[in-house]
Amino acid sequence: MRSGYKDLIVWREAIQLNTLVFQMSGALPSRLRFVYADQMQRASLSIASNIAEGYGRSSRAELRRFCRISFGSAMELETQLCSLEALGSFPDPKLEHVQEKLNLVLRLLYGFIQSL
């Protein structure tokens, strides 16, 4: 019997990423918060959520499918962070920290998908 998705390093790192995104998005200037905050929060929450949902499915193929969806959400978040960075109006060091955590999650998720 598997011990649970909460024991997966990739899921734990995705939860940490989600926390960082919520903290960072709350610090955005109001003109950027309206456009970016909700999108980034939803994308980051989707990463961990899809890992958990896939884990709860009945087959390895389903887990792989949901992890691929999770990877897509991570790429969506990466695009939003790149766009925010390109605007150059949010020099907060939290942005760099979120990008580093996202890169870790992407690497872990890619490896996890390959192992399935």
What does it look like?
The chain has 116 residues and is mostly helical. The protein has one domain (5-115): de novo design (two linked rop proteins), CATH 1.20.1440. 82% of the residues lie in helices and 0% in strands. It has helices spanning 9-26, 30-55, 60-87, 93-115. The radius of gyration is 15 Å and the shape is elongated. The model has no long low-confidence stretch (mean pLDDT 93).
CATH C-level: Mainly Alpha
The number of helices is: 4
Q: What number of structural domains do the residues give?
A: 1
Give the full name of the CATH homologous superfamily: 23S rRNA-intervening sequence
Helix content: over 70%
Gross CATH architecture: Up-down Bundle
Reading the helices and strands in chain order gives HHHH
How much of the sequence is in beta strands? Answer: under 5%
Tell me, briefly, the overall form. elongated
Oligomer status: single chain
Structural category: mainly alpha
Work out the number of β strands.
Answer: 0
Distance from first to last alpha carbon = 16 Å
CATH fold label: de novo design (two linked rop proteins)
User: Tell me about the biggest sheet?
Assistant: none
Name the poorly predicted regions: none
User: For the residues shown, what is the average pLDDT?
Assistant: 93
Specify Rg, calculated over alpha carbons.
15 Å
